[in-house]
């Protein structure tokens, strides 16, 4: 499952993503969260200690992992306004 949170700056993407990640972590043993925002605040929002790892440093490995099941149908749900497309 791949889920993205998109929107304007200050719209609550990081807060919403952190809450959703915390929920998923109660349902699944492994959850991969990638903060692609230039400000990179998701680690702090999740209270994860340590230094943030730059996406650029691991881009090839992350890209390969995310593309493994590319042939699966992708469902995109628009949010502004909500729709089923």
How would you describe what is shown here?
- The protein is mostly helical.
- It has one domain.
- The protein has 3 helices and no strands.
Mean pLDDT score, rounded?
79
Largest sheet: none
Count all strands and give the number: 0
The class by helix and strand makeup works out as: mainly alpha
Helix content: 25-40%
Low-confidence stretches: none
Number of contiguous helices: 3
**Rg from C-alpha positions?**
14 Å
Q: What is the molecular shape? A: globular
Oligomer: single chain
Distance between the termini: 17 Å
Order of helices and strands: HHH
Counted up, domains total 1
Strand composition percent: under 5%
What is this entry, summarized?
This protein has one domain. The protein has helices at residues 13-27, 42-45, 59-66.
Set out the fold topology.
Layout: H1 13-27, H2 42-45, H3 59-66
Features of the shown structure:
mainly alpha, 3 helices, 32% helix
């Amino acid at each position: 499952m791949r889920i993205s949170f998109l929107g304007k700056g200050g719209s609550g993407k990081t807060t919403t993503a952190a809450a959703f990640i915390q929920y998923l972590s109660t349902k699944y043993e492994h959850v991969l969260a990638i903060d692609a925002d230039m400000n990179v605040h998701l680690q702090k929002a999740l209270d994860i200690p340590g230094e943030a790892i730059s996406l650029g440093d691991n881009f090839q490995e992350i890209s390969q992992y995310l593309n493994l099941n590319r042939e699966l149908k992708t469902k995109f749900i628009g949010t502004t306004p909500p729709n089923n497309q």
